[in-house]
């Protein structure tokens, strides 16, 4: 099937009943992840997911205080009065599952393979899974030595899993005070880990993607895909996809980054297109909102975290080298992906200027802090900027963040 036909077919499903039990927005997301992926073509067909059942008492559990019972019941089953965790194995893994089996044998448990979930590939190592009984749809990230695109052998470390939950909880807490305007955060509210084998599995909610059929969500790298990018631009009356996505991806990404950095002091370690989704209406009109996912891949600004009164986050976050007094913000819309024919070096550098200008204006309006430096991309990779964290305006803004929460919500 040609890509154009696949794209039209996918969008048409937004109002149809999906025979694979995915909601239409999830079906569209899977198709975009796998068939509009500049890093490599993947399968959008369902696969049976292997899982082991491990007594909860043998592993560590971390969960959000208001975690959905439906989601928790998908991962934890009660048999003979004992809670068992469905420890899911990445279908492409040929290495790390052996450690899980050895762990089970060390506790005199035969590693019986179950096939409870049905799953779908994404462009990287995470899989979107569906509970066959309660219909829950969510993303699960676990260790694998084989995966899609530029992401190869990736062990899901024990500490990293609980770092992700820590930041997910923080983001939820900050939004409870005042919701984000330009940003949707994919929460990651449930983690299971086995410290002795240094592995964890991370459960990510799909936000509105699983239920809201008024919108579709397309990965950042997919909107810059050779055909998909042109198709969506054309559907919006534009014959210039580079200019269209400058306006509807690069600018919104800069506003989202400014909002998140100003509110949290957190930004990505590797801000490539896999970590972001563009929100569109079902008739392909960009809304200006961005979806952020993968909350373990981040840097934390220490002074801002202290000003927010979140010393426990600094204490518990295990990746200490990613806690800094500096504050840099970068973005790599084509990092790790094939460059479409309608983007050249001049266009990419103009995107960098757009990102810088938009971020600087929005961030200054929110904080009164000047952006200090700007670095253009080397090739089609990351471009970014630095916030002046050694200034009176930065100190003054942190004093606002240090104000009581009721007063703080009135600012910015």
Task: Characterise this structure.
It is a single chain. The chain is an alpha+beta fold and 412 residues long. It has two domains: 44-204, no CATH class; 212-408. 35% of the residues lie in helices and 22% in strands. The strands form five sheets. The chain has a seven-stranded antiparallel β-sheet with strand order 1-6-7-8-11-10-3, covered by helices on one side. Helix 8 (241-264) runs parallel beside helix 11 (345-367). The longest helix has 24 residues, at 241-264. The chain is globular. It starts with a helix and ends with a helix.
Characteristic key phrases:
22% strand, 2 domains, 35% helix, single chain, disordered N terminus, 412 residues, seven-stranded antiparallel sheet, alpha+beta, four-stranded mixed sheet
Question: How would you concisely characterize the structure shown here?
Answer:
With 412 residues, the chain is α+β, with helices and mostly antiparallel strands. Helices cover 35% and strands 22% of the residues. The strands form 5 sheets. A 7-stranded antiparallel sheet has the order 1-6-7-8-11-10-3, with helices on one face. Strands 9-15-14-12 form a 4-stranded mixed sheet.
Summed over residues and divided by their number, the pLDDT gives a mean of 90
| Number of structural units classed as domains | 2
Q: Indicate the percent of residues in helices.
A: 25-40%
The gross shape turns out to be globular
Can you count the beta strands? 20
Spatially, the strands of the biggest sheet line up as 1-6-7-8-11-10-3
Largest sheet: 7 strands, antiparallel
- Our measurement of the CA-to-CA distance between the termini, rounded to an integer number of angstroms, reads 49 Å
Q: From the helix content, strand content and strand pairing, which structural class follows?
A: alpha+beta
Query: Which stretches are low in confidence, meaning pLDDT under 50 for 5 or more residues running?
Result: 1-6, 8-20
